[in-house]
Design brief:
The chain is built from 11 helices and 15 strands. By secondary structure, it is of the alpha/beta class. Strand 5, helix 4 and strand 6 form a beta-alpha-beta unit. Helix 5 packs antiparallel against helix 9.
Length: 367
């Protein structure tokens, strides 16, 4: 199979779909790989490393998209890439279709085979291709939130770790999954007063046992959420419903409960955000203020630490990606059950129910 790696063109996105080691693995399996010139430069991976691994460097994105049987990316196609989509071409990348009707329509109209990293799911319910970027985003969320609390950013002027004689800042993490866990670890490491909310009592019990009571746990009811919002300096939105639009747990009305200059980092922005007032921002202009509350909602947070993120992502995507290249997408899905929910669109049909429901479009089961 001919695998193509285009340069990411989403604003300030510096990751790349494959690292040279991944190219080498594909070549050893008998595949050809073409990489757009300078595709890896943002991650510190020059063209000569891809060439040494066996890739062919091509000068334009059009050639990559036009020649490749399988496109191996990081982020979803943006509008400039829609005309390059081809019927029956395999698109292996993050898609996040539920909040994105224009992209959904473009993929359907083109008839691509869209396999979304974020919905590849193991039998235990875990999301192995989403996990590494959730780890990165969870850790970055506290780093970004600490910056948002500075007065120069419009924040309250609170130092999360406090100092002797002055109490630490209070951090509320909504959701105790992978993003939430990593946010909690970072916030605790900075010395903050941390509370995590979740609807899963067993998960809250795990937090309590693991951190030996140093993390406060709350069941995520409306009452508890509202009370915690009023006390929090920084709120991390870490809610995920796999493949679906995130629920708005924090409404615009809730902002009035928060202290002026408090900050929200909505890590769920890729799926529409779990805060009603969220809209996607970029690394160039990451924040905005609504009703006195600083919002940070960068839709590709891990792109800020592109080298770490690229290698972490490639570690996760390589095994299934090689299987798709080796067997073709149909046989790969039959061979590896985790890939089955990864198929979001195919032949002009939506094959992932949460995406169909989000857009009120027909759902076509894979069978």
């Amino acid at each position: 199979m001919l695998v193509g790696v285009p340069k990411e063109i989403k604003p300030q996105e510096n990751r790349v779909g494959l690292v040279p080691a991944g190219v080498r693995q594909l070549v050893q399996h008998g595949h050809k790989v073409i990489v757009e010139q300078n595709a890896g430069s943002g991650s510190g991976l020059p063209d000569n490393e891809f060439i040494a691994a066996g890739a062919e460097i091509v000068s334009t994105a059009e050639e990559v998209w036009g020649r490749a049987d399988m496109i191996w990316k990081v982020k979803e196609p943006i509008a400039a890439e829609y005309p390059r989509l081809r019927e029956n071409q395999i698109l292996y990348t993050y898609l996040h279709l539920a909040p994105d009707r224009p992209q959904t329509d473009a993929l359907l109209n083109a008839g691509v085979v869209g396999i979304a990293y974020e919905t590849v799911q193991d039998t235990d319910g875990s999301l192995p291709l989403l996990k590494p970027m959730s780890e990165v985003a969870g850790r970055l969320s506290v780093q970004a939130g600490a910056r948002c609390l500075e007065r120069v950013m419009g924040g309250r002027g609170v130092l999360l770790g406090g100092v002797p004689g002055v109490p630490p800042g209070k951090v509320m993490v909504i959701g105790g999954g992978i993003v939430g866990l990593n946010a909690v670890r970072m916030a605790m490491g900075m010395g903050a007063d941390v509370t995590v909310l979740d609807i899963n009592i067993d998960q809250l019990r795990w937090f309590d046992n693991t951190f030996q009571g140093r993390v406060k746990t709350l069941y995520s009811s409306t009452h508890n959420l509202e009370n915690a919002l009023g006390e929090s300096d920084l709120v991390i939105g870490a809610v995920l419903v796999a493949g679906a639009r995130a629920p708005h747990l924090v409404t615009k009305e809730h902002l009035s409960l928060m202290q002026p200059g408090a900050a929200i980092v909505d890590v769920a922005v890729d799926q529409g955000g779990c805060v009603e007032t969220t809209h996607a921002t970029t690394h160039a202009e990451p924040t905005y203020i609504v009703d006195g509350i600083v919002h940070y909602a960068v839709a590709n947070m891990p792109g800020a630490v592109a080298r770490t993120s690229t290698f972490a992502l490639n570690n996760a995507t390589l095994r299934q990606g090689i299987k798709i290249a080796d067997l073709g997408w149909k046989a790969a899905i039959e061979n590896d059950p985790s890939l089955r929910p990864g198929l979001n669109v195919c032949g002009g049909k939506i094959t992932y129910k949460a995406v169909a429901d989000a857009h009120n479009l027909p759902y076509e089961p894979i069978d």
